[in-house]
Design brief:
Elements: H1 3-22, E1 28-29, E2 36-42, E3 45-48, E4 52-54, E5 56-64, E6 70-77, E7 98-107, E8 112-119, E9 122-127, E10 139-145
Parallel strand pairs: 1-3, 2-5, 4-10
Antiparallel strand pairs: 2-3, 5-8, 6-7, 6-9, 9-10
Length: about 150
């Protein structure tokens, strides 16, 4: 094997490991600001095309590509992502320090649902609050800017 081929293979392996490590928690966003957001929920992650939106109407189109039912809540809170206090295996709705803006209730595997909201500037989390789901990582920070 030539030195050049060995360097290419090493560089490729390093880049692959680096990219894989960036999404290790399963929750991700492609970046940028959008008010027309698509995404997926599955065990144990939420993925969105953007984690920021401008003030006003925000449309979430979410597909359940998991193997069980999930829900999708938009919660306004300054509590750190993943740190909403749980009461057993989920957090109470309502609870101190957070406001559930609206939700897509539990929806079936292989289906897509849409939620359109009028959001004010602030810090939010998008979450699944079915028993055990938030604790297992189904939460993602979301910000609305003016």
């Amino acid at each position: 094997m030539t030195k050049q081929r060995l360097r290419i293979i090493t560089a490729t392996l390093f880049a692959t490991a680096l990219i894989a490590g960036c999404g290790a928690d399963g929750n991700s966003a492609e970046g940028g600001i959008s008010n027309d957001i698509t995404g997926h929920v599955h065990e144990w992650a939420i993925e969105l095309t953007a984690t920021s939106a401008n003030t006003g109407e925000v449309k979430f189109t979410i597909e359940n590509d998991g193997t069980i039912g999930h829900e999708f809540l938009v919660v306004k809170t300054d509590i750190a992502v993943g740190e909403i206090p749980l009461d057993g295996d989920h957090f109470p709705e309502p609870a101190d320090g957070l406001e559930v803006i609206d939700e897509i209730g539990e929806f079936k595997v292989g289906t897509t649902e849409t939620l359109t909201l009028n959001l004010e500037p602030g810090n939010y989390q998008v979450v699944c609050n079915l028993p055990g789901h938030y604790k297992n990582g189904m939460h993602l920070a979301f910000t609305v800017v003016s």
